[in-house]
Amino acid sequence: MRVYIGFDDTDVKDADRGTGKLARWFEDKLPEGCRLWGVVRQQLLVHDAIPYTSHNSSACVIVDMADVSLLDQLTTKAIEHLERYSFDGSDPGVCVACEGHSSMPELTDFGRSCTRRVVTQREALRAASGVHLSGHGGTDDGIIGATAAVGLTASGWSGRLIEFNGLRNFPDVVPVADLERSDMLVVSLDRNAQVPSPEDLVHTKGWLRPRLWGNRAVVSVKVIANGIWESLGEKQKKADHKGEKGGMDDMPVRCPTFPFGGIAR
After folding, report:
1. What per-residue confidence (pLDDT) applies to 238?
2. Residue 197 CB partners (closer than 8 Å, separation 6+)
3. 229, 188 in Cβ contact below 8 A?
4. Phi and psi at residue 157, to the nearest 5°
5. Residues 6+ apart with CB under 8 A from 61
6. Which of 59-73, 175-189, 242-256 has the lowest average pLDDT?
């Protein structure tokens, strides 16, 4: 069974790590019977009404779980991990949902809304009805991004993988065959839609980050010479800190009365 674990709003300005790194570290905390499939970064709306640290992104850990009886243990470990590694002054939240849950359509719709408009904690709680959603400090605004991360990732068509089959260990120039042996599909986005050959080379610019397309890790490339390709995208510097630290604000007012921290909502 596949499980989606969303983390958000765990860092503060000048922190030495962000939510993506916290999510990647969770692999070491997985209980026996659980295996990491990948970690996906999701980009949410950047707006003047939304406090964020650098990019307003959240992260989702995708776990393959041997038995549904492990879900409570996995959720507890996710909470412990979040509380250990999130920074004082942040507004951390976590969402955990299994594939096929009846709330998945609402979670995905909510996640897409978070890329287009300012949303509220109340909306997150409504979308996550029946799955685990909890806040663990500050304003608890992190429940918004955590919920969005689960919904967008579960759709199979959003985000980029920041952990997947050792992607950080590949050299800057790598044969297509090596990527595909690691279950990364290399897809041409050039005008003629050529098909890369196994012996062709891909220049990753030191930043291999496949997209999550069709529930696959897809390396999108463009041709730069015969048998030579370049992956799309590259590492960018963090944006300037925007406003007060936090996740997505409740707008126009906060809703502080919800009792966060329970195992299921």
Report:
1. 55
2. 176, 227
3. yes
4. -135, 35
5. 4, 5, 6, 7, 23, 26, 27, 36, 39, 78
6. 242-256
Distance CA 27, CA 210 (A): 19
Which residue's structure tokens are 């992260």? Answer: 59
Tokens 């496949």 found at: 210
CB 136 within 8 A of CB 99: no
Hey, CA dihedral for 59, 64, 68, 72, is it positive or negative?
negative
Backbone angles phi, psi at 44, to 5 degrees: -105, 175
Could you tell me the two tokens for 45?
Answer: 């709306």
| Spatial separation of the C-alpha atoms in residues 91 and 77, rounded to whole Å | 18
Answer for the pair 134, 241: CB distance below 8 angstroms, yes or no: no
- The pTM for the full model equals 0.86
Q: Which residues contact 215 (CB under 8 A, 6 or more apart)?
A: 156
Q: 102-159: per-residue pLDDT in tens?
A: 999 999 999 999 999 999 999 999 999 999 999 999 999 999 999 999 999 999 999 9
- Structure token pair of residue 248: 């997505």
Say if residues 40 and 160 touch (Cβ distance below 8 Å): yes
Helix (H) or strand (E) holding 211: strand 211-213
Domains of the chain and CATH, by start: 2-160 (3.30.70.2200), 166-231 (no CATH)
